[in-house]
Amino acid sequence: MKRIPKATVKPATKAKSRAVPNAIELHNELHREGERRDQRNQWSALAVAALGIAGAWYYVQTSPNEPDAEAKSASAKTPAVVAKGPEQDSETHLGKILAEAKDRPAQPTPAPAVAQAASTPEVTATEPVEESPSKDEGALLAKEEALLLVGQDATREIHTSRDRKLLLRALNNHTWDAYRGLLAKSIDAGLAKVSMPEGRNRFDGVWKESVLYQAMLRWKILGRFAEPELIEVAQDIYTGEMLAWLLTNDAAMEQMLLTIKPEDDGGKVLMFLRDAWSQKPDKAKQYFNLALACAVVFDQDVRITTPDKGGEYAAEAKVDPLKRYLWYIEKNEKGKLATSVDRMEARDLVWAVCAPISVSEMEWAVAKMSLRRKNWGNAYGMIEYLMERAVKGINPYEEYTFAEILKEGGICGDQSYFCANTARANGIPAMIMAGETDLGGHAWVAAKIQDDEWTTGIGRIGGVSKGQAGNPQTGGSITEQEVQLWADREHQSQIVTMSVFRHLWLADYYASRTKDEMVAEIAKLANLLGPSFTETWGRLYRELEKKTEKASDPAEPGILAEWKDFVGRMRREFKENPRMAELAAKAESEHLFPYGDENDAKRSLARDRRRIERNSGEQKDLIASSLKREAELMMKRNDANSKRDISRLYETAMREYGGGITGFKMMAEDYFSYFKDDQEQGKKVVRDIELAFKRVVETGTKDWFRAKTEADIYRTICGYYRTVGEVSRAEMLEKRMDRLMEQAERGAL
Predict the structure, then answer these.
(1) Which residue in 154, 236, 394, 621 could disulfide with 211, CB within 3.0 to 4.6 Å?
(2) What is this structure's pTM?
(3) Which of 84-88, 390-394, 615-619, 672-676 is the most confident on average?
(4) How is the chain split among helix, strand and coil, in percent rounded to 5?
(5) What angle do CA 128, 133, 134 make, to 5 degrees?
């Protein structure tokens, strides 16, 4: 994906200030504020000094002993009163941080003002820190009048200055919840002033009001983290620098919202971002997306799969997140990578930084691999296939390094490991896919081989029903079809992507204000703007569920009509990628089938199976799932004909759709599960399964991979026969299976 462009603001005229002040303005403002404080402190100091001198004079007059020493003591204390305290320095420095966070070009300002601002004294890292938010300060902040966020006046200095000061108060006093409440109050007032006409562009006015939009992003970001997490990461002016910059940078906040997931540990994410910032402060903004990717991946330990047994990195057992971050910066600055990691989105970089390999292996990949990014798939074929490892399970490796795999060869898992992880080390997002094919289990690679192109075809073979990869960020899995969706034109468009997610973020805001009608309307519009984004369907689904719960009767014609429309539109949108329409199946099972006629439901399911077979024949597991849903409807009748109808359903379906290995195994398992407790009916079911296997699956081939796959199904059928008491039949089939495997093994070797 292309990087999201930073928000831009048109240059302001002399009569108008920009929505977000530039760095020089912030320096000058905070310098002026410092001067005012200095003047107040000096007057206070003079008053204290006068009192001190008067006291000294009185003492001299009343005590003749050692007057000079006493006078010197009183005089020596006076300068300490004039010096600025740590709180004043802290606020001035935080103001500088906010100023430096701006990426917008600064307007000309008189040189003396810049010089004065630059001379603002720094504070030491040992300054006192308030450990918990002040209740009084929080209450005062909550009582503040709403910020002006809309219109030309919102960009005037008086209002932008107030915005700066309130953010500084939140940073200094750790009153984040109160500050977020103030933001919400201000956003409410701002939204009330924005014109919202009907149509696709109804809410565009929100994004065009730059001050309002930044406030909404801040509100959303702060809501993602608990107040203790924010306090922990911003305890003082130095550790708060990253957070201050983040909250004044729209593009950075958008990246975080697009990247972070509910499964991420928010506190650890913030702590890593802070630490990464302090490691390379001069590069922190340039490599923020890289830091964010590392933060969401390494909030949990990532174990190195094969730690080196010797050498410099022998002690590594898990990835060191900061070292990984700095390593990529070093290589990128030297031009050693196949990509530019400072120009990539954090969502993509997640799939690069996650490589579970040692530093020495990463160094090897950068030094020895000379492939171009677009041709990195060739790395898969660089590993010679080792048939003996596949058949006999031998392990030819001592350390399982890239060099050793390249030398010894390997099977599909080794080829995928080599290809994906050398790509990751070179900055190319990649993942190892795994799934069952018509030749058995297989591993292949998906990679982002161009800025706008993900491919799932590296090393892939036919017959894959459901390919999956582990998700290094969430700990879950991701399907091949999801990755294919990332290459969709809408997903590659930054304009469409940002439009969709801005609407979803706005829906979140209105939901927090319990404005359900607005939320539902925004969800529909987001889905209209980005129908290929599953996030919009998920939001629509939740809103329809809320509406259904509020209805007096979930079977109301209007409610059912909305669910039918949801199911139909989602199926049409993903007709060529039916796995992404699984939410439609859930909607049918939970909100339509329970209130309709069984025959109507069966016809709908049959149509769905034909559609899957026609448009995506490999995904036979979806057909098996559809069959099970229909069988469940029959079982709910709980009458004398239920199991008879189930038997007829599977007997026919296994002949029509059983050609795929994964689909056949799922159908056989589901079919047998309904009859395994009835020995007589169970015998008939197992014979049906065996007969269907011989008709549509068994080939009698001597190809080792196919023969092994068929033998595995034979073992399953033998297990069924033993369950229903036909042991002799099971033993006969097992002998036949053993002979077939012996022949296949001799042919393979």
Answers:
(1) 154
(2) 0.82
(3) 672-676
(4) 65, 5, 30
(5) 95
